[in-house]
Amino acid sequence: MTKMQANLIFNPKGNDNTEQRTIIKWNKTWLFQLNSTKYNWAKSLYQVMIWNFWVPEKVKWLWEDSIQFKKELNEDEQRAYKWILSFLIFLDSIQTVNLPNFSDYITAPEVNLILSIQTYQEAIHSQSYAVILETVVDAIWRDEIYYFWRDDKNLLERNEFIWNIYQRFLDNPNDENFFAWIIWNFLLESIYFYNWFAFFDTLASQSKMVATDRMINYIRRDELTHVTIFANIIKEIKKEFPKIYNKDVIYEMMDTAVKQEIKWSKHILQNKIIGMNDENVEKYTKRLANDRLNLLWLEPLYKDMVSNPYKHLDAMQNNNMEKWNFFESTVTNYSQSSAMNWSWEF
Ligand SMILES: [Fe+2]
Ligand SMILES: [Fe+2]
Fold first, then answer.
1. What is the DSSP-derived secondary structure letter of residue 209?
2. How remote is the CA of residue 11 from the centroid of ligand 1, in Å?
3. CA 39 to centroid of ligand 1, rounded, Å
């Protein structure tokens, strides 16, 4: 397998020609020359991501959730709330730490630019969990939530699985490990969060923990741009490096992610949360997997999965998305807007 080289910091002998540029493995100068770019989807996403700017302080009335947490959530809901936070904290931590490593192998400044914004957003998500732990949940639970993986072997197994795929590339940076690395980023961003977002929406639909759900809505809006970043990178790799692209690997890793998600969801929810029984979790995860494969222009993996059991939560899940329906945009129609500028009006 071909070894990959991390980008230089500056390369006077590099070539910034956009016609010849490729998304990885290009010999650039590493000057951030953003007036001649190749990947217009990155420019569009940059605008969306900047437009989406938010901070956890924007979410008001979080203290009301702390009263509800104690008085209105039953034991199962409290347990699920804490364990779910623990997994989300891990996901955002590893993304914040790892994304700069990933960006070191991407050779288009316009894509490095949005990966920097993504890293910053993942760090903001970590801040929002800290705000929740400060405001909603009793301080005595804080360490248990942060370090739940020390006690729960299921969670440790999941966290280690993600870490191992990322670490394998860092220890042995070759084409095969790189492709697995990208695919796992896509899966983490596109599959792992969503049962948990559905949990907070489910509580909110019963008028419980509404402020937490508002915070989660902001996080989800960011995560959807991250899904789009990785879907676009994967499609560019398919176009530019067909020998690195491997459809079978995508299907195999998707199936692994789906199985892990279902197993962990059942472990957390224990069939005890109203609206989120084992059957719904399985249906939703498989349906989501099919939708995500569709983003990569791939056939569904679970052919009989057509209905979304959380359809009734759609309105809550889409309430921040009205301005930008970028999921329907593809590499092709982004690139048609080649005259797009970096400056625009808010
Ligand atoms: Fe995040
Ligand atoms: Fe993310």
1. S
2. 32
3. 23
Count of Cβ atoms closer than 10 Å to residue 164 Cβ: 11
The letter for the amino acid at 226 is H
In a domain, 22, yes or no: no
Q: How far is CA 331 from the centre of its chain?
A: 19
Q: Which ligand is nearest to the CA of 125?
A: 1
Residue 96 has pLDDT above 80, yes or no: yes
Alpha-carbon distance values, 274 to 37, 73, 317, 331 (Å):
49, 12, 18, 40
Q: Is residue 60 part of a domain?
A: no
Q: How far is the CA of 278 from the centre of ligand 2 (A)?
A: 26
Q: Ligand 1 centroid vs 19 CA: distance in angstroms?
A: 33
Report yes or no: 242 and 172 within 8 Å, Cβ to Cβ. Answer: no
> How remote is the CA of residue 122 from the centroid of ligand 1, in Å?
4
Token pair 């070191």: residue: 104
Would you please indicate which residues are annotated as catalytic (active-site) residues? 129
Rounded CA-CA distance 86/178 in Å is: 28
Contact indicator for 208, 17 with CB cutoff of 8 Å: no
Output the domain CATH number for residue 206. 1.10.620.20
pLDDT for 305 = 74
Q: Which residues surround ligand 2, an ion (CB under 5 A)?
A: 189, 223, 226
335 domain residue, yes or no? no
Q: What does the pLDDT read at residue 289?
A: 96
Number of domains in the chain: 1
Q: Which residues constitute the domain of residue 308?
A: 67-329
Q: How far is Cα 186 from Cα 226, in angstroms, rounded to an integer?
A: 8
Q: Which residues pair with 174 in a beta bridge?
A: 3
Contact 295, 331 (CB under 8 A): no
Does the pLDDT value for residue 208 go beyond 60?
yes
Task: Name the residues around ion ligand 1, CB cutoff 5 A.
Answer: 92, 122, 125
pLDDT digit string, tens, across residues 156-195: 999 999 999 999 999 999 999 999 999 999 999 999 989 9
Task: Name which of 1, 8, 2 is nearest 112 in CA terms.
Answer: 8
Grouping H, G, I as helix, E, B as strand and the rest as coil, residue 94 is: helix
pLDDT (0 to 100) of residue 58: 87
